[in-house]
Amino acid sequence: MFDFRLQVFHTVATRLSFTKAANELYITQPAVTRHIRELESHFKSSLFERSGNSKVILTPAGKMLLKHTEQLLKDYRQLEYDMNLLNEAHTGVLKIGASTTVAPYIIPRILAAFHQNYNQVKVNLLTGNTEQVEQAILNGEIQLGVVEGRTRSPQIRYQEYMRDELVLVCSATNTVVKGDTIKPADLLKYPLVMREPGSGTLEVIDHALRAHGIKIGDLNVEMQLGSTESIKLYMLQSDCLAFISIHAIAKELKNQECRIVDVKGLTVERMLFIIQQQGQPEPLTELLLKFMVKFKF
After folding, report:
1. Residue from 96, 54, 75, 105 nearest 6 by CA
2. What is the pLDDT of residue 274?
3. Contacts for 225-228 with beta carbons within 8 Å, 24 or more apart?
4. Hey, where are the domains in the chain?
5. What is d(CA 184, CA 218) in angstroms, rounded to the nearest whole number?
6. Burial level of 51, CB count in 10 A (0-12/13-18/19+)?
7. C-alpha R_g of the chain
8. For 1-68, CATH number?
9. Which of 109, 126, 193, 200 has CB atoms 3.0–4.6 Å from 240's, for a disulfide?
């Protein structure tokens, strides 16, 4: 029901690419171009300027239209929600994000239970590191996110969700670490596989190690990888150790594919946060938020 031309414009404006918008909306690039030209003709203003490499930038008119389009989209989602309430139904699309630890190991159980209760609500999940999910919140690409760590952006509201423990693990066939307990200083001599800069996981590990006088830069980091799953698989096939969420290795521990190496006096815990833009959340976002708070692991 919402004007599809404005939806096309909003997608191009947030992705800054006609090609990406076409792929996301499942239409052809010429169709995207046609819709934009119709809007430009209607408003008698150019909305985009080409910046090379198939990317575009918003003109002043484009920026103004984006501002109003975002408000219209918000109002439309509110309208759909209010009208559905008349029939005691919850329908619509929720766009959420989760960091690369939360996405594969925590959020699927929540979404599966949510779907059983509200099967008319469609959920699209974006996955990235904490910084990327926060940026998606700020860009209006998603309405809610779950991340580890926080960068304290004043435009984002952070709500504590659940605690997660990071444990040091190695494969069951590791030939480097003989015992099940080491001292913090021993970390300097073992090869490690870690997350990439900007990761909330790396931020938490760094904070915990600094309490013992150890910096990330002091460690023997053999590899930096962009997801918990890739780190886990690398660890299982190498002599590297890794700090991994206890949620991510439950299956491997049960199958005795890996083992926990205790570091004396070192506890690496973090709080997982639900994040959203400051202000009153949209109804469907609030519905999911309340469900998540009540959900028990």
Report:
1. 75
2. 94
3. 225/193, 225/194, 225/195, 225/196, 226/100, 226/129, 226/195, 226/196, 226/199, 227/100, 228/100, 228/101, 228/104, 228/105, 228/195, 228/201
4. 1-68, 165-269
5. 12
6. exposed
7. 23
8. 1.10.10.10
9. 193
This prediction's pTM: 0.62
Q: How far is the C-alpha of 224 from the C-alpha of 123, rounded, in Å?
A: 31
Superfamily of domain 165-269: Periplasmic binding protein-like II (3.40.190.10)
Are 142 and 223 in contact, with CB atoms under 8 Å apart? no
Please count the CA atoms within 13 angstroms of the CA of 25 that sit on its side-chain side: 25
Q: C-alpha dihedral over 244, 245, 247, 252, to 10 degrees? A: 10
Cα separation of 71 and 209, whole Å?
45
Cβ–Cβ < 8 Å for 49, 16? no
Q: What is the pLDDT of residues 6-47, one digit of tens each?
A: 999 999 999 899 998 998 888 999 999 999 999 999 999 999
8 Å CB contact between 200 and 149:
yes
- Give the pLDDT score at 60: 94
217, amino acid identity: G
What does the alpha-carbon distance between residue 13 and residue 48 come to, in Å, rounded to a whole number? 8
Query: 3-state SS of 234-269?
Result: HHHCCCCEEEEEHHHCHHHHHCCCEEECEECCCCEE
pLDDT over threshold 80, residue 165:
yes
Residue whose entry in the numeric block shows the structure tokens 């926080």: 150
